[in-house]
Records
---
Amino acid sequence: MTIKTLSDAITIIEFLISKQGKSIEASIEEAGIPLHLKDQVLKYFAPPLEISAPDLIIDKSRQIPLCNPGTDSMQQYFGALRQYLIEVKGRSKSIVETLTETSLDLVKRLPKPYATDEFQSRGLVVGHIQSGKTAMMAALIARAADEGYKLFIVFGGAWKDLRSQTQRRLDQEITGESENSADGPFIICDPDISTWSRLTQSGLEGDFAPGT
């Protein structure tokens, strides 16, 4: 197997660790990981951070059919986000896996978008600054898009700079588009799936305007 990308390297290293019980160092040597990828592989497989699983408060009184995500091949928007976090942002395995598992737990609490004529479902994310709230929001949006949700409205705060900052982050991780290339690098989604239509822009004056 020719190892060209970080994803290729991670795939073969995970196989050697899980199936053959090899250490990370031995796996890197046996797989012949290119020198320019070794540091990224070591960072990805670094000891996990102490991230506690979130507590979920669930309303069990509802009887609306809930989302039931399929296989990885059906998770096109979230799959692109996961690859972006690994390949471009260099996030560690523990962070990516926590985001993957927690966003899956959350999307399973969402009603199927076509299950009924109308429904209301509310959730709340609480966390410290730089604790991963926006990352979780992006992951949930991506997973919901995979489930068939079509419109996402994000209230980015009362201040223009905060709203613009949030837009830039979601453009990087969700839409893959921006009027300013300096905001990148951006996620690259499969060209065969529906592209995002952005109703706002990332500049300070890019919020909703009359006639949008």
---
Amino acid sequence: MTTLIKNTYTPQKWTNLTGLQGISDKTLEIHFALYEGYVKNTNLLNEQLADLLASGKASATNPQYAELKRRLGFEYNGMRLHEYYFDNLTSAGGGDPVPEFRDAAAASFGDFETWKNDFIAVGAMRGVGWAITYQDPTNGRLSNHWITLHEEGNLAGFVPILVLDVWEHAFLLDYKPVDRPKYIQSFFANIDWEETAGRLWTPDSSECCNLEH
């Protein structure tokens, strides 16, 4: 009998995020606990799915298998998007973006401020979800998108560059729901631009990457 390898993830820690501007340590404490729940549920679903596969019950006609498989995208993306979000924050953040990110934004939007205004507009949209700047690896362009329920709206193959959590748990202790724009301002005051720029994909000069594609 084949022994299946089960995917297991370990929750990450962000001890460097205390003292953020406008995002309280209490909010982060609650937020980290919620993130750890996504990690736990991702591991649990992977284990249950592996068990069903090993026992020959991985079938489209098995309601248990189908429901677990559908649920995995929500839990996994909830885990991964939170890791992107916490990683692109720092208590020493804010200020001007590094040239690499500013240039990438300008190449896609005309200038940095136009990119920023568009990103803020996405983050301020009604509903709960995520505002994400993605990069299209086929042409290097950046674009801003609204993602809801973690797994709905992600673009296949696109690389997350800057991730903003606008579910209410990310700011409700610090701001009223109607004050989400103030939370977004605080987010910008804490962005780790070096981390964000490090996610950019730069094509090799030998590869054709036409920004006008």
---
Amino acid sequence: LLITNLRDGAGNNVGVRGQVDKTIAAVNANAAQQPSVRAKVRVESFTVFGAQMSATTYTDRPNHRHVGIPYMVGYKVYDVRKNVGGSWVATGVTRNLSQSITIKIFCDRWETGNGLLKLVTAIDRPYMEPNQGTIEQIVDFFLNGHLTNFIDNQVRQQISSIPIMNTSTNLQFACNTLGRNQIDPATTKDDVIVYSDHQSRTVATAATAALNRIDVKLISLKRLVARDLRGAVLYQPTETPALEVYANTQVFYRPLSAIQEGQEIALNAQPLTVRTPGSNEPLVLVANIIQNVAVGTQPTDSAFAVFGPTTNYGNGTRTIRIQKFYTVPADPRTGAKPRLVPVDAYDLIVQIVSAGNLTTTLESATPQTPGTVQPGLLNQGVQGTIRKRGLEGDPSDPSTVHPSGASAETK
């Protein structure tokens, strides 16, 4: 997927650079119709910083790898003219603008097996640099500052058609791995987004299915006593929130019945079943309490827990404690700044069943001969089951990854 200098069948640039040039042409056409001040804008510089693999950093939802390409575009505002009695008089004014544009590519919903490329554009407002020339400063002095402010306001209006928005577009390209080819970060050559869609060739059996899954059962949610310094209840004596829980990419959502301090609600939910992560990947549980249950509402309070292979992916009964926050105002007498204070508010009880993990039980307590290692024993559920990973599945290119962060490989 080409991003910076993508061409259509007629050879026109329809990539980022082409979109910038098209926008500036529209800005100039609009500026030429202005009744009081007219100006022209041109692209002075166009810098591509090279594609990089990054990851989102949310604490209340699953995070995903993506490819990001940042741009910095410099514009020159020139040939600024003012209408004086029907004649257009040159002012000698110039201005420099800078604008940050970031293109992000995701493999959206790869975890469902039906991932599609998703393009997200983040465009900042153009920044006008205050670089008045000497002549302009002298004229501006005798006009009590009116010239510069007037021209700057007029120019800002004319460049307002430069996009300042965030957009999201789903592309009809199937994917479950994602990478990039940086090319040359010092030039405006194309940065290439690399993606592919590898269908699994693993033959599932009952034994491998038991090995490759983790079940997370939601047992109950208990509301704790949560008060501020004055003893007031946080947030309300009776609350009717929604509970949202992520187990890696699997999600549970349910509006709850009214609950008061000290009450516990049995959840009786179907277990969230996730595939056992790779050897270097964790099981991440995220619990969100949403006080306003309207669709799309952001979580009010959130907590997460991470379990890796060394802890058997948290196998057993676990408690995730969710806190509420209240604000202590600033104190001018002591100079203390306002601060958020956390208070324990909810306990979510979950049961994690990770049946396919290895155990390391020693056969006896007899001291071992120096230089030898006492072998561990396989869990009964995995004896006789062998998984082999050959060179074909070796992730030799670290820039190509599953959007979750796991190395891309063919199984």
---
Amino acid sequence: MIKKLLNISGIAFLVVVMISCGDSHRDTGRAYMPDMTYSRAYETYSSKEELEKRGVNYTGRPVEGTIARGEMMPYGLKNDSTGYLQSASIKSPVMRSTMNIKEAERLYLVNCGICHGAKLDGNGPLWKDGDGPYTAAPKNFMDNDMKAMAEGTMFHSVTYGKGQMGSYASQLTTNQRWDVIAYIKSKQFPSGAADSVSAPAVDSMTVAKTK
């Protein structure tokens, strides 16, 4: 009798184990916050039209007017002749005494040195005393006309491009562009003397807010 009961108990236990291992009992029940429990996955390069059909409002771009954390206010002057002239009055927000000169130098060498040269003399690898692939010599930052150029005008040119130089707004953040300009000025005037600009200095933040 005892042996029979043990057999029945063993069979019953095996049945319970087999039932508990079935897929029908995998549901964890209701989630208190289903949006966080079952997050919707997004494919970076998926068709936005397909997402719209599913009721998903996803553009792949940040909300208009947002500014990246740690970034400065957007540059306010337009890419036209008036904006170019007004840029001479913009004052750089970078203080030479507090700037990271090593990082500014690295940014210059990576983005500018190939044309303007490591010595800022306009003799980068793409020119190389006229033997390089470029047919027009890049600007020599050590020339008097470039030394006299205002920081704001340099920043405007780097932001929108000037002549054969394209815009670097997509390669360098606003902060980084100002750092590069500050590095150039530090090499032009190693003693700390400021370049002569007749227009009154205006902070770039003020310009951004007025536009």
